[in-house]
Design brief:
It is built from four helices and four strands. It is mainly alpha-helical. Helix 1 packs parallel to helix 2.
Amino acid sequence: MLDVFTRESLAIEVGQRLQGGDVVGTLNQIRQERGVPKLILRDDGSEFTSQIMDLWADHNQVQIDFSRLGKRTDNAHVESFKGTLQAECLDVHWSATLTEVPQVIEGRRREYE
């Protein structure tokens, strides 16, 4: 999750098949630490378009906006962040197992808070 106003990474979830419940869990953690966002800009990934995500947004009075399919410029800050994370973290740190990846990524996120 990236705050596009402050350009701060609030959370990075790692997994092979993240689902809406995973996103809602992360949003609940962020809500406890930082409060509820006014707006969430999301793409069309299944983890963001689930019913549980819509229910969470409705319950917390959060507006949902979609980036247009194939329009990476709608979400330029996030795309730039993902590219930097890939180049400066994932390409540099070789992990033998998936259990190591969240630790490496969380360390990187905290380093650049």
